[in-house]
Write a structure and sequence with these properties.
The chain has 341 residues and is an alpha/beta fold. The chain has a single domain, classed as TIM Barrel (Alpha-Beta Barrel), CATH 3.20.20. The chain is built from 12 helices and 13 strands. Strands 1, 4, 5, 6, 7 and 13 form a 6-stranded parallel β-sheet that branches. Strands 10-11-12 form a 3-stranded parallel β-sheet, with helices on one face. The chain has a two-stranded parallel ribbon with strand order 2-3.
Amino acid sequence: MRSPGSVAGLVLALGLVVGAGASVVLVAEWIATAPTISPESDLATPLFSGEALRHDGLAAQEASGVPILCYHYFRPGLTPARMLRVLGAVLLNMPTIPDKEYWTTTVPEFERQMRYLAENGYRTISLDELCDYLEGRAEISPRSVVLTIDDGDRSFVEHAVPVLRRYGFTATVFLLTGRAGGNDWNRLDIVDWETLRRLEEEGVVRVESHTHRMHAKVKAAGEWVPRFLQECRDEEGRVSPSSALGRDLLASRNAIRRHLGHDCRFIAWPFGFGSAEVDSLAQTMGMRRVLTLRPNRNALDHRAEPEPLDGVNLGRYTITARTSFRLFRMMVRPAATTVGG
C-alpha cells in the first residue's frame, strides 16, 4: 500500500494537470517511455519500424513517389478517465494502458493532420490510381497521398470518417473479413458489413483484405511468428491455394464480393510484412498488389533489374501514438518535381 505522501503526491499531480494545462507534457512523457507491445501480442509492432521512422531516417529518403499512410484505431482527445489512466501508467508504473493505444490516433491529432493536407493542396487517391501511375498508365499530382486504415475497428467510423468527409478525403480499409460485426478479437469492435456498404456507396472508403482470420501468432522454434507464414503450404509442402492461407484468402475475397459486390484487389498482411512466397500466392489468387509496413514511398522504378518484391509490394508509413506532427510532415513532404509528368 502506498503511503499518504504518495497519494497526496498523486492528487497534487492531478491538480497540476487539470489546473495548469500540463496534460500535454504528461502525455508526451508517456509516449516517450511507453513500452513496445509484447512479441506474442496480436497487435505486435511491425518488422519494418525503428530507425527508418525517425526524423533522420525520413529526412534521408528521397521525396519522390507517393506516400501511403497507415492508421489503425481512433479515440477522442484527452478525457478525465484517460488522464487517470495515463497518470497511473506514468506516476505509479501501473499497466493501465492497453496494447492498442500504441496504434491509436486521437481525433484532434487526426484533424490536424488532415487539415494540413487540405491546406497544402494534397489530394487522396485510390490504390488503383496509384498502381496505374506506377505501371506507367497515368499521371498524378505531386501532392498525392493514399490513406489506409487496418483491421476495421468501429472507432474509424465514429471518429475518422467525419473528418474525412469534412475535407473530402477517402481511405482504404483493410478489413479482417472473418471478424466483421464482431467484438471477439482483442476486445475490438469490428465494423459490420451494412455500415461498410453504406460508406462505400458514399465513396468515403473502399474495403480490401487484411485476411479472413489469419491475424494471429503461433509459436514456432520458440518464437512467436505470424500464423499465415506458418500455414501457407499444402500437404506436399508447396505454397499453394489449397493451403490454409490460400483457403483463408479465398474466404476473404468471397466475403467482400458477397457483402459489398466488388472484387478484392489488394491485401495488407497482418503484422506489416509477408514473404516472397506468400506475396506470390496473393497475386496468384487475384491480388493486384500487396501492402506492407515497410516505411518508404512508392515511385516508378527505372532500374534495369529491380528487386523481386518491388513490383508487388507497396510501402506504407505507420501512424502511431509516437508519431509527432514533425514526423508526419516529413512522411508526406511533396516531391520536388511533378509526379508522372
